[in-house]
TrEMBL record, chain A:
Belongs to the binding-protein-dependent transport system permease family. CysTW subfamily. The gene is pstC. It comes from Arachidicoccus soli. It comes from the Bacteria. Pfam families: BPD_transp_1. Residues 73-289 form the ABC transmembrane type-1 domain. The chain crosses the membrane at residues 20-40, 72-97, 109-134, 140-164, 210-233, 266-288. GO terms for biological process: phosphate ion transport. This is Phosphate transport system permease protein. It is found in: Cell membrane. The keyword Membrane applies.
From TrEMBL, chain B:
One of its GO terms (biological process) is transmembrane transport. Its main location: membrane. Keywords: Membrane, Transmembrane, Transmembrane helix, Transport. This is ABC transporter permease subunit. The chain crosses the membrane at residues 12-33, 61-89, 110-130, 136-155, 189-206, 251-272. InterPro entries: MetI-like, MetI-like_sf. Residues 65-269 form the ABC transmembrane type-1 domain.
């Protein structure tokens, strides 16, 4: 009986470990497969034009075989920066307030809010942006600054993105601040520092690497978000000169043109290259922050 | 005195920031509910699109609701089959190889950050490579690739908090690695497992960009995995761009239904976590 049981257990073990190794190998290979797959698919375009020419040129007319990604890259960059500057300070201040000053019930309530906000699908944020943010900016905000705008512009995209990245940033920032040992705070306070000085000099310094990681999460979220941005940003191929003009970020380019990409030569290749660009930027970004965080933890 | 003013200034700034997050949250929910409430009807929930649906005639979005559920269930199932062993293995079988686990964690974090549209494009590239058509199956595979890293990392964070003594105790009683993983650690991580599953499910049901190329779109409910399927996010997206007011109304209704499903999931996951926390060390 015991022997039978042991034999069965041995086989269960073998199969289970075999499957474990297989799926772990699969997960290790997945990033490589995605990168390689996109390179192969975008190869026809890369073969024909120089890479620097593709990302440096503004000339976008697929019908004539001209593929310049410059406008899209700049659009992506602007919208990411804009949403970062709108959301990062707010998130940092809110996280400090909730973890250091606010009563317990408020923090609990906020965790619920974060949960719900993080769960709301991006297309719903997009619909909300069209309903609320676009008219607001088109009719009220732009005229204040003396610009005429339809409201479908860089700023709308930035605002919607900023709101979307709040739950991710805030959640991680709160975690970082809560994980700093209380003794550090107590030591600082007992040396006569005020509460705010303690936060400024001890808490923020101690949590620096975590804060960087949290902000990175927000940025990479903003960079790749597709549907919500696409719905409010206007989608005009140009380099925007102010935040009330329309832009056309990379993800929107891919999503908008999947329908007719097979009918024009090289077009599919160009869209694959846009995806590859996004993929490379995100991975590089991750490596950079990882190195930063790891160095500080050592 | 100056110190005092500085602290007060920042305190008010922080209150303002917290208040504005709450305010935006309230406005967001209010607008979705207010716009969607009038548009939701039994007809919308229970009927598939009839002739002339996209010109404001009769019908509903039942096909998109069912399609989304099929897609989310299928991809979550795949994500669990792939992800559960990896998450457990990172903390048990591979636990001693710290360097390997760190590399794996880094790769999973990087994959978490990769936008869903990139997964969508990759899924499309796979599809054309294997000469498949846009279908439920292609959608399920793409979404599974997209949510598996999220699922693994969420579960991994939970398993990491389990004390190391438990691993040693289990091994010293003669249990194999597999037994330790599934009978000891999995049980401890059950509430976290449920939360991670629901998180992955929520992501799967709400994402539009990854299914845009791979799942197709249709007015009927798919009968097999080889048929294309409609999904709620795409139903919202397509109908919102229509110039006809009735069709736009339906987009708001669909947005409310989708938000309702997500809200339901997050409340259920909270309740589960509370209920099963009792059985844990």
């Amino acid at each position: 009986m015991t022997i039978l049981f042991t034999i069965r257990q041995k086989w269960v073990d073998r199969i289970s470990n075999g499957w474990l190794n297989a799926v772990t190998f699969f997960m290790l290979l997945l990033p490589l497969a995605i990168g390689l797959g996109l390179v192969i698919e975008s190869f026809p375009l890369l073969h024909k034009y120089a890479f620097t020419q593709l990302i440096g040129s503004s000339d976008w007319s697929p019908m004539d075989g001209k593929f310049g990604f410059y406008d899209f890259i700049v659009g992506s960059l602007w919208i990411t920066l804009l949403s970062f500057f709108l959301s990062a300070p707010v998130c940092l201040l809110t996280a400090i307030y909730l973890t250091q000053y606010a009563p317990g019930w408020l923090m609990k309530l906020m965790y619920f809010v974060i949960d719900v906000l993080a769960g709301i699908p991006s297309v719903v944020y997009g619909a909300w942006g069209v309903l609320v943010i676009v008219p607001l900016i088109g009719a009220y905000v732009a005229p204040i600054f003396g610009f005429a705008s339809t409201g479908y512009c860089l700023l709308s995209g930035g605002v919607v993105l900023a709101i979307m990245s709040v739950p991710y940033m805030l959640n991680m920032l709160m975690e970082v601040l809560l994980n700093i040992p209380v003794e550090l705070k107590e030591a600082s306070l007992s040396l006569g520092a005020t509460y705010w000085e303690t936060i400024k000099h001890v808490l923020l310094k101690q949590g620096k690497s975590g804060i960087i990681a949290a902000l990175n999460l927000g940025i990479s979220k903003a960079l790749g978000e597709t549907i919500a941005v696409l719905m409010v940003v206007g989608n005009v191929v140009q380099v925007p000169h102010n935040i009330f003009q329309a832009a056309y970020p990379l993800p929107a380019l891919i999503a908008n043109n999947y329908g007719d990409m097979m009918s024009i030569p090289m077009y599919a290749s160009a869209l694959m290259l846009s995806a590859l660009l996004l993929f490379i930027i995100i991975i590089l970004f991750n490596i950079l922050t990882n190195a930063l965080v790891y160095q500080r933890n050592k | 005195m100056k110190k005092k003013i500085e602290e007060q200034f920042f305190l008010w700034l922080m209150r303002l920031a917290t208040g504005s997050v709450m305010f935006v949250f309230a406005i967001l929910l209010l607008v979705i509910i207010k716009k969607g409430w009038h548009a939701v009807s039994w007809q919308i929930i229970s009927e598939v699109p009839q002739g002339g649906f996209y010109f404001g005639k009769a019908g509903g979005i039942f096909n998109a609701i069912i399609g989304s559920l099929y897609l989310a269930f299928g991809s979550t199932f795949l994500a669990v089959i792939i992800g559960l062993p990896v998450a457990l293995g990172m903390n048990i079988q591979f636990a001693r190889n710290k360097r390997f686990v760190r590399i794996l964690r880094f790769l999973l974090d990087a994959l978490w950050g990769v936008p869903s549209i990139v997964f969508g494009v990759f899924g499309f590239a796979l599809m054309t490579y294997f000469h498949l058509r846009a279908s439920l199956l292609a959608g399920i595979i793409t979404v599974a690739l997209f949510i598996t890293p999220i699922f693994i990392r969420a579960l991994d964070e939970v398993i990491r908090t389990i004390p190391e003594g438990l691993l040693e105790a289990s091994f010293s009683l003669g249990a194999t690695q597999t037994r330790t993983a599934y009978s000891v650690f999995f049980r401890q991580a059950l509430p976290g497992f449920i939360t991670a599953v629901l998180l992955a499910f929520g992501r799967g049901i709400g994402d539009a960009a990854s299914v845009l190329f791979t799942a197709g779109y249709t007015d009927s409910i798919p009968h097999s995995v080889n048929e294309p399927t409609a999904t709620l996010p795409l139903a919202i997206f397509f109908q919102l761009s229509s110039p006809i007011p009735e069709v736009k109304q339906r987009a708001y209704a669909a947005a409310l239904i989708l938000t309702g499903i997500i809200l339901f999931i997050s409340i259920v996951s909270r309740l589960f976590t509370k209920k099963y926390k009792k059985n844990i060390l």
